[in-house]
Structure formats: C-alpha cells, structure tokens
Amino acid sequence: MTHSRRQESPVSTVPPTVPAVLVLEDGRIFRGTSYGAEGTALGEAVFATGMTGYQETITDPSYARQLVVQTAPHIGNTGVNAADAESRRIWVAGYIVRDAARRPSNWRSEQSLDEELRDQGVVGIEGVDTRAITRHLRERGAMRAGIFSGAGALSDDARLIEQVLEQPAMTGSRLAEEVSIDQAYVVEPAEHGWTGEPVATVAALDLGIKAMTPTHFARRGVRCVVLPATATFDDITAAGPDGVFMSNGPGDPATAEPQVEVLRRVLDARIPFFGICFGNQILGRALGFGTYKLPYGHRGINQPVLDRRTGTVEITSQNHGFAVDAPLDGPVQAPAGSYGRVEVSHISLNDDVVEGLACLDLPAFSVQYHPEAAAGPHDSAYLFDRFIELMLTEKRTGTTTPGTTAQEEN
Ligand SMILES: NC(=O)CC[C@H](N)C(=O)O
C-alpha cells in the first residue's frame, strides 16, 4: 500500500543529479554532482577556509583561473545579492563544495548561489569530500585541475587528466591585465558619506581590485582614481595623486614587470605608496627581492599576522599563493635602486611567511593580506589610516612633487 502511494506521488524534493568529476593533475579523482553551470572548468585547485563570505570570495578577481575548494561544508545558505559583489563578475574558474544549500534563507538574498553560478557560466561540483581534497592539496600543494560535468564527466579518466595537464601552470601566468578595467573611474568620498572636502587623492592601480578598497579610502575622505593595470607613470601623475596604491590581483608576481617598472618611478619620485597582496609582491620586486610560490598558499579569513613594530597580532583576511623572499632579520639595504633601508614589518604566525614590507627611508609600505577585509575581520583597517597619515605628512613637509625625483627637488 505504502509502496504504491509513493509511486503515484508527483512531488519529488530531490532534484535530478548530473554527474561531475574533479580531476587533479596528479591523477587523484573525486566524483560528485554538477553545481552551477554544466561544462568544463580548468584552473589551479586551491582551498579557502573562510566559514563565511563565499560571495566576496568568488567575486575577488585574485581568484581568476583558480578552482576554489570551500572547506566550510555548507555553502550558499545566505544566497547572493548585488551589494556584496566585490567586482563586476564571478572570477573563480570553478567552484567545489561539499553540500550546496538547496534553498537560500536570508533577508538580503536576491538569488541562489546555484542560479548565479549558472547565470555567469561558472562550472562547479558538489557532493565531494572537500576535507579529503583539502588534505591532499595541503600535502601535495596547489595544482592544476579540472571540473568536468554532464557528458564530459563520462569521458575516460586518462583523457581528462590529459586535458588538465594541457593548461598552463599558475607559475608564470600573467593575469592582472585580464581582470583589470579599460577605463579609469573615480570613487568620490561623497559617495560614501564623507561630507567635507576631500583630504587627499590616491591613484589606485586596478590589478584585480575589490570594491571595498576604494570604499575604505572614500569613507576616510580620500578620492580614489582607479586606473587600469596598464597605466603608465605619466597616467598616474596626470591624476594628481598624493599617493599611489597597487591592489591585490591574480597570477604570478614574477610576471608583473610593467607594474614593477612603474612602481620604481613612483619610489624614485618619492610619491607615498601603499600596496596590498599583489601590490606587496610588486613592492618587494621593485626593491630587488624575489618572489616564490608557496606550497598551498594562504586563503581564509582567520590568518594570524604579527605586526613586528608594535607586537600586535592581527587576524587577517588572506588570499595568496606566492610570497616575497626577503630576510626576516632586521632592516637591510634594498637590493635594487637607491631606495635605502627596508624591513619585513609583518609575518605570518602560521609559517613565518613575509606578510608586510616597510621602507625606512621612503614613504612606502605594503602588506600581503587584505586590510579591506570583505570578507573577513576588520583588525587591519588601520593601515588605510596609516597611509593617509603618510600622504598628509609628505604633503605638509612638501617633499613630494609628483613627476619630479627627490634629486630634482633638492
Ligand atoms: N590576492 C592577491 O593579490 C594574490 C597575489 C598573487 N596572485 C598570489 O597568488 O600570491
């Protein structure tokens, strides 16, 4: 009886499942079901440990060409909305979750994450053991991978591994120009509730900038002129900036030669500089240090960092796979140019990786993490204040004239 009633019922709460498979370049394979768009996604498999903020994560341009594994097991439960997007689109190349929420439940939700992934053509996989994937990546390192769903998932494993190996590795990939903008734009302080006159102007290079960064400047009264990644030194000075900012961004910092050259001219001209993440790596390179690939990177919103100058510990938001190779012990002369002394100002308390650089003879500093948060804790927002203070001090003491070098001024 019960059996026949069940057969007659037209209602089914279980959606039809489409097979999907995650294939890692070392041959490890995880089978699950399709999530978001159906198709093929290739990229570097990395894991992100944030328990919240999945929308900010997937719209962070630094994740371009990466397949992101969320270690939090339940994803999508608050849906997505226009206000929380950190850029104009989703940038993760593919998305890997354990258990996708079937129904979002939040008053701010405008659409389900599944629908948003579909709308933007982002291929994902769900129902895989994300803990096993994470442990694998932690032991073997971030690596090339592919998500294949629908008909593609039925292909021969060897053929799928071949496809995964055909893509370029993250090392050597230049991606900042791909995610940047074509046209400059300005974010005015008044747009974010500032009622007085602007206190300064920052020229911000968009190497993959997140919306929250200009917002932080604007809230503090700073005009933010956002420029494409290809901006020249002359484009920067044309904005009449009191300071220059370089954002986070995807790809290998070893490929950022044009931005390193631009930054050297900024430093030569003694224009105050602040960089975050990719911007920190570019400052490191401009000063003559190398960069290297971390085994599996730092991605999450609870990464402990020590500010070595104050002894304060910050809980930070991070997303980096590369790091600066600079000596931890004491200030050193910058190996390149005549930039004077530099010190490692911040280090990771998990693994001693360089998390910040400070020039002692120039108004320039940077951090490897994300003081703009979004998502993540706000511990590091003081860095925006520190940069504004630096710009205003340089302005007051008159040592900075954009477009001229320190020698020319003397
Ligand atoms: N968020 C970032 O700016 C990342 C910088 C660089 N692409 C890295 O992976 O290290």
Compact overview of the structure:
With 410 residues, the chain is α/β, with parallel strands linked by helices.
How would you characterize this protein structure?
This is Carbamoyl phosphate synthase small chain. Belongs to the CarA family. Helix 9 packs across helix 10. The chain has helices at 2-8, 54-58, 113-119, 130-140, 157-166, 176-179, 212-219, 233-238, 257-268, 278-286, 382-397, 406-409; strands at residues 19-24, 29-36, 40-48, 66-70, 74-75, 94-97, 99-100, 123-126, 143-149, 185-187, 200-205, 222-227, 243-246, 273-276, 290-307, 312-325, 332-333, 341-348, 354-359, 364-367. The relative contact order is 0.12. It has two domains: 10-166, 3-Layer(bba) Sandwich (Glucose Oxidase, domain 1); 176-409, Class I glutamine amidotransferase (GATase) domain (Rossmann fold). It is globular and about 65 Å long. It has 410 residues and is an alpha/beta fold. It contains twelve helices and 20 strands. Bound molecules: glutamine. Glutamine (GLN) binds next to strand 16.
